[in-house]
User: Fold this.
Amino acid sequence: MSALTGVAVGALLLLAGAFWPAPNQVSSSPAAVAAVADPAPAPRVTAASSTPRPGTAPVGLRIPALGVDVPVLPVGVDRDSGGMAIPEDVATVGWYRYGSGFDAEQGSTVLAGHVDRAGQEGALFDLRELEPGATLVLAGPDGQVRSYAVVARDQWSKDQVPLDRLFARTGAPRLVVITCGGPFDESTRSYRDNVVVTAVPTGGP
Amino acid sequence: MIPTRRILTVVAAATLALSTSVGLAGAAYAAEGDQPAQVSVVHGIPGQAVDVYVNGTETVSDFAPGTVAGPLELPAGTYDLAVRAAGAPVSEAPLVAAEDAEVPAGANISVVAHLSEQGQPTLTPFVNDVGSVPAGDARLVVRHTAAAPAVDVRVDGQAALTGLTNPNSAQADVPAGTVSADVVLAGTDDVVIGPASLDLGEGTVTVAYAIGSASDNTLQLVTQTITGAHSAPGGVAGGSGGLADDGLPVGLGLGVLGLLVLAGSGAAWVRARS
Assistant:
């Protein structure tokens, strides 16, 4: 190409680079995050005569802004890693069965899914682009739904992610959706970071 | 186990000097060292309902055998405990008593009125381990508080906690779920209690007490569940494909490419004009 064309192309690329949005930008109000994500002080342990009732399982998740409409399955703990078990099917999202459930009045209802696996993009592939204010809808039993609005999107390296806060079972009720992101390590086939969206209830059930 | 001086004593005085009241739920505590203790009481002596006195005040009334009362929130300190037949006047000798029982700040304790191995009424305090239970697990605690020889506790047919004697406690963290538990004479298959279905909730501590008397054929299992001891899982590993890799920021890459093209084209343009 001619030198002049080259200069023009170069200038355009430079401009594009300058304005390209950073992928892991946290776009949320720190105050909102603190209010939602900081759990109440550790619950006082009390004796009870019966075991607490498990949470009601959500059955589906919709994120209209991302075109996500997927089933949700209860999951527990991966016995080998001690981490939250995640459905192998990338088009399915897991709900942490030991925490708060669909109709929780306190604590985190935690969902997680693979960002990708074996060459397939997962249901939560675009979670890192979800903006505050966006709507999430949880489907529960008997056709009930519960809607939420995003208050925070965060990205932490896995050795810094505040798991106790995200999985808290007390405090204001919230929906926490987790997947992976950040730099990918070819040797371990894993991502460095967790991408986490926190949302507060806005309606139903 | 908290050491106490357990004294079987005839209480002659109608009232004991009271300087501390019980049940201070709702009081504010300035420092962690002032955290109240949570104290449950287990009635493991078969045959009659009882009243439980704490520092001379009737605190649990008409307490049926085989049941658990509490938890009471008690400030840290030492307490006198007495158990009398339900409705008996304070002047009557207690069935069993303990003086200067130590209650540490922030502890979770179960005090059990039970029979010794020889069948004598006694009081034993146990500290409940309510430290973090690993995610996905439940803590099973078994206490031998019955007039019976050493026993093994079997869970789903397998020996889980073995060689337990009166008045001792054993525990294990196991996968959460519902299990079938029974109690056999140690080293044998002679079932003395159960089987009983135990719902071991995730993140909870389930305490099972063997109470009663083997010779009177009154052996039974009494359970209490303590909640709030759970832990978060160790991580969320969600992705192994590499398609979402954003290790090199796109903006930076474009900018660098732009600079290179600009520099190369700019140099060529200058040369062409010179």
About this structure: The radius of gyration of chain A is 20 Å. Residues 24-41+54-203 of chain A form a domain with the Sortase; Chain: A; fold (CATH 2.40.260.10). The helical segments of chain A are 3-19, 30-37, 163-166.
